Amino acid sequence: MRDVRGDVIRRQLNADHAVSVGRVRSICGYLINAETPSETIAQRVDDLFADPIIEHGATNTILLTTDTFSETPDAVITVGFKPGVTDNPGKAATDGYLTLFPTDGEAKIATYLTYAFYGLPVDCDVTWLAGTLHNTLIERALMAGRDECQHHSWPEITFPTPPEQVFIEPQPVDLECDDASLEAISNDGLLALNLNEMHAIQAHYRDASIRAQRKAMNISPDAPTDVELECLAQTWSEHCKHKIFASKIHHVDHETGEDTIVDSLFKTHIMKPTHDMQEDVDWLLSVFHDNSGVIAWDDTWSVCMKAETHNSPSALDPYGGAMTGIVGVNRDILGTGLGARPIANTDVFCFGPPDWEGQLPENLFHPSRVLRGVHAGVRVGGNESGIPTVNGAIVFDDRYIGKPLVYCGTVGIMPRHLPDGRPSHVKTPVAGDIVYMVGGRVGYDGIHGATFSSLELTEESPSSAVQIGDPITQKKMIDMVLEARDANLITCITDNGAGGLSSSIGEMAEYTNGCEIDLAKVPLKQAGLSPWEILVSESQERMTIAVRPDDQGAFEALAALHEVEATAVATFTSTGMFHVRYNESTVAYLPIEFLHEGVPQLELESEWTPPVQESFVPPTSADHAALLEGMLQRPNIASKETWVRQYDHEVIAQTAIKPFVGVERDGPGDAGVIAPIHGDPHGLVISCGIAPRYSDIDAGAMAAASIDEAVRNAVCVGLDVDKMAGLDNFCWPDPIESVKTPDGRFKLAQLVRANRELERVCRAYRLPCVSGKDSMKNDYGTGEHKISIPPTLLFSLFGDHPDVRKSATSDFKFAGDKIYLVGSSKQELGASELAYMMVESGRAAGIGGQVPQLPHPEQNLATYRALSTSIRAGWVRTAHDCSEGGLAIALAEMCIGGRIGAAVDIDGSGEGDVWGRLWGESLGRFVVAVSPQHEAAFLAAMKGHPTTVLGEVVADNNLTITDGDDALVSMDVDTMATVWKGTLDLTGGVV
Amino acid sequence: MKPKVAVLFGFGINCDHETKAVFELVGAHAERIHVNRFVSGEASLEAYDILAVPGGFSFGDHLGSGRLLGNRMRFAMRDALMAFVNAGKPIIGICNGFQVLVKTGLLPGPEQGASPDFIQRGSLTLNDSGRYEDRWVTLEFDPESPCIWTKGMSRIECPVRHGEGKYVMPTAEDLDRLSSNHQLTVRYVDPTTPVGSGLSDEPLSYPLSPNGSMRNIAGICDSTGLVFGLMPHPEAIYARWLHPTHTRQDGDTHGPSLDGWEGAGLQLFRNAVEYVQQRS
Asked: Where are the domains of chain A?
């Protein structure tokens, strides 16, 4: 039998490091800590730990000493988890063990993997090799080199017992000190509270009535307890309160002379436009205030969507960080209204170039390793949860080496009304309801995530902020929660994410104006956690759910059936207080209003001067076919098939337009389309847009391009443009001016411009933003070594598709179909993919110039409506968005999808020169193909909209592009497919 | 008569909704039932006519796909499963469900005429590629198979979505025995071969065979033809709008349901439902 697990290691060493190893064999190890005698366990090895058909099993024996491993390896490496790190296979093994030995209730099993290397190159260092196989933050490795192997001195790993936690009684923290000491308290405690905020807290505890109130509760009257201070730090963190988006900004524009105050970017540019639109439509059910935005999809069902980022954790542990990202956003959906069912995921990643050969700053992983780890985490999280990944993108830029961006989105569905008639999008708790913590337990592993993500990444970043998700525990919980919802048992539900119980119960307590929590009731992963740790730990896979006292029995029975832990830990009150006890003693007593409204508004400075970029000047003549070959291999354009194919994009049997289209099912899908109600072709479109490099010229243009791209992608498959909603996810470098960030004013001005464009374009498109998120500290290092990401807006879109049978895909279909450009090309090559390629290869001096603009979005919307109507009429079966790499790349991808040629003349397709028309990235453009039979109807529908015939689909398997009499490109379709699919393969082959 | 179908769920099974839906589309009454309802005795398997073990990642596939759920069934539902099989009622396992049935020993099961003995005879292991993949494959059915699920079906396209789909048995004789009984019900084939002549023992290249399965096996049945399991997902092509190239196929119609938009996979479920209806 073949050892595929070992062979994958061999192939990856070859693909990532060009290290050629003869053979790698693997051993799955289980360390069992139990009462049952090992002889008894040994008799059941083949029932649980080893597959009798394909594996050898042994107990209390190092397999390397047995006949199974008769040949002596050159190196042996054993990798296991560090104590306290989530070990999912170990948890499953324990569960399986209890099936066999049900009385051995305290049994614990930990897992490890051992790899034996044969034919290892002599110069291959074993310590280096071990480094490629484990992450020192969460794993430990033991190794045997050549000598040890010769002497049969094998690694022996021991059970990872976590160090004892020391329970510390809540302590008052004296804030009657000078400013420097206040700042030290915040910094040393990883609280991420600024001086103003520390002053606000100090003032609270100086209030005489507060002191009297506290005295009566027998809690330190004039100083916060550590529990309270931690709770405030979590609740007031940038992550939870979005203080930059809520800040008062003094904005100066040196281009226009504008000097103005913006009071909250969020309220001004995101919330207000959506609320204005809410007056015109009846389908915006719930916006901004819940865990995701909800729209009515039809009379029976509503749908919701949320996207999150998990950047800092993914930088530290790409696998665990990304996995907690995806399963975390699934919980946002589960925590929407009275509980929605997650039915589709989206994943958008921004990484450094996978072939990076330059210097790597200390403590940062190589981009290819980040890519592998993030991808694996999201793959496992999504696939194991049974949620299809229907849409996404992977973007590359050098600056994402400093901080990868990991956007995870989820779409949910719920019946508009529950069986008892309550609208599902409205939470209905009342004082007296019992609050349960459901799912996983609380551990030391999740402490300080929210405040940590509001700090920038340094070499000393704490490892306790890293967690590994447990999709199966969560899946069980999702199954259970949805049954509880349908049994009318839930009055309120929210996710335990950032800030842990302090945030989840704290936020829900706003509904009834109070709560009383007993931290001693909270089930722990290990004993000894102190009260503040229990309150703020962000251990995963937990929901907070309120039920009526009468329903407790039914709720607990359901939890028991699903083998999900559910513990009553709090009660809603109407006292106005966030009251936390540990057994009988009060450890926190904070007014709800102060907790949620007490954070002082930031006041920030913003100053816009356009960045100076050397203009991109294309060469006077060029071989456009050679350029096309080069562009197809650019990581930003190349096929992502290897990676996307590993996501289940079809579970639930609803995905009507998949990430892959065309005859060989490898052409790019523009947007995902799902028909979630089985038997009914009513659909939902899910798309995204992202264009970070336009920020190098203007972050406003970047934002407009992102939104336009998301809409165009959705139009390509037949979206009803009159029912679409958006999500804005901003990832920015720190925009607050400071010693560390001398250019903070400029970065804030970029944010102001992006928000203004967001409002302008969304209003024009009648596209309400219903949910969003921001991540504002995406920097690494300091001074000249500082790396700041390009300001990046991911715009996600979900909208209606009345009938998925009337969709279009990007693959060219049949010879003779007419090819049209919808929209018009302008001379817009600034920050284009072509410009970056030419600069990187030394053929141009700069990427500057005219970045794509969106001057008349209202006209665009009318064109989009005409095109999507034509698609839904069945006249257009082929449509593709024209974006990175311009028309040339769009055409190439359409030929690849159809494995068929096209003859195209770009003369008359716009006002630009040949470079602008072939490679420019002007917005508002599509390439479509129409069969001769439907051409007249299509042209009639497009009357008044820019629609230019480009040529036709041809049978000869060759893409030819001319500009009038000038031949530009002639390229074989199979050649294009090969180069386009090669760059990001990175698998090391399949055999 | 509407046959009653028990669709298992819980512990990471995740194709339960669509598996229920496809049975209902072909006239059955299907219920999603948590494994523990059978284990506790709260629900009785006897009350059902068909058992479906859907796809998913039960227990995260840790310790081998299907192993832990297989154990729960093997140890806690043994008598009920034995009675169900002996009563001649159809069982299907799809993807993870197939893995579960193989690990419980229900597939391929013992020699003809013997009761289930819950001894594992084959296994499903890591794809040769080492990767979980979602890709469409072409399947062909053995027309002489006793399998009641695949009667009259010749060739379909549907997706595989697995990382451990390589079917293996210890010896060639084991496979020969199944082959001679026509228990190698469904196999991966090269779509360029004429329909009806694609079946081959020679391993196909990747990705025509997505996992390197012995003899290109995609699914097998037990000696009675009532218990059937396969790695690919026929329920994922219950409607033609789920086919990856449906935008290229204007004018095609298929099947009696969904306004001519029935997908090729639905017949498999209809076969079992009709089998139960004809038997009663």
From this structure: 4-150, 165-259+427-599, 808-991
SS3 A352: coil
The answer on pLDDT for A920 being more than 90 is yes
- Which residue of A lies nearest to B211 if distances are taken between CA atoms? A990
With beta carbons less than 8 A apart as the criterion, state whether A160 and A79 touch: no
Segment A921-939 mean pLDDT: 98
- How many structural domains are present in chain B? 1
Q: Which B residues 80-99 touch A at CB under 8 Å?
A: none
Of A5, A561, A809, the CB nearest to B36: A561
Give the Cβ contact number of residue A306 at 10 Å.
Answer: 31
Question: Would the CB atoms of A655 and B62 count as touching at under 8 Å?
Answer: no
Say yes or no for a CB contact (<8 Å) between B135 and A646: no
The mean-pLDDT minimum among A440-454, A621-635, A871-885, B34-48 falls in A440-454
A655: contact with B, CB 8 A cutoff: yes
Q: Which two tokens stand for residue A636?
A: 């930003």
Which range marks the domain in which residue B200 is found? 4-279
DSSP 8-class letter at A439: E
What six digits make up the tokens of A29? 């190890």
| 8 Å CB contact between A308 and A325 | yes
Alpha-carbon separation of residue A287 from A284, A307, A642, A989, B196 (angstroms):
7, 14, 36, 47, 55
Plot region of A874 (φ>0 → left; ψ -120 to 50 → alpha; else → beta): left
CA B160, B166, B172, B173 torsion: positive or negative? negative
Query: Given CB atoms, is B249 within the 8 Å cutoff of chain A?
Result: no
DSSP secondary-structure letter at A166? Answer: P
Record: contact A93-B37, CB cut-off 8 A: no
Q: What is the mean pLDDT of residues A822-840?
A: 97
With beta carbons less than 8 A apart as the criterion, state whether A965 and A907 touch: no
pLDDT per position as a tens digit, B162-192? 999 999 999 999 999 999 999 999 999 999 9
CA of A660 vs chain B CAs: smallest distance (Å) = 7
CB within 8 A of B212, min separation 6: which ones?
A: A2, B127, B128, B129, B166, B203, B206
Domain A165-259+427-599 has what CATH class? alpha beta
B236 touching A, CB under 8 A?
Answer: yes
Superfamily of domain A808-991: PurM-like C-terminal domain (3.90.650.10)
Note the pLDDT tens digit of each residue in A255-280.
Answer: 999 999 999 999 999 999 999 999 99
Report the run of H or E that residue A773 belongs to, with start and end.
strand A769-775
The pLDDT-based confidence of A781 (bands split at 50, 70, 90) is: confident
Q: Is it true that A165-259+427-599 and A808-991 share their CATH fold?
A: yes
3-state secondary structure of A13: helix
Report the pLDDT value the prediction gives residue B255, as an integer from 0 to 100.
80
CB atoms within 10 A of CB A432: 13
- The Cα A510–Cα B270 span in angstroms is 52
pLDDT digits (tens, 9 = 90+) for B206-220: 999 999 999 999 999
Strands B91-94, B50-53: parallel, antiparallel or unpaired by DSSP?
parallel
Element (DSSP H or E) covering residue A843: none
Please say whether the beta carbons of A465 and A316 come within 8 A: yes
* Chain A interface disruption, residue of B23, B175, B247, B266, most A CBs within 10 A: B247
Q: Looking at chain A, how many residues does it have?
A: 991
**In A189-271, which ranges are continuous DSSP H helix?**
195-204, 208-216, 226-235, 238-241, 265
Three-class SS state of A143:
strand
Give the closest-approach CA distance of A354 to chain B in angstroms.
Answer: 19
**pLDDT given for residue A459 in this prediction:** 44
Give helix A833-840 / helix A624-632 axis angle, nearest 10°.
100
Indicate which CATH number applies to the domain containing B158: 3.40.50.880
Q: What's A123-156 look like in SS3?
A: CCCHHHHHHHHCCCCCEEEEEECHHHHHCCCCCC
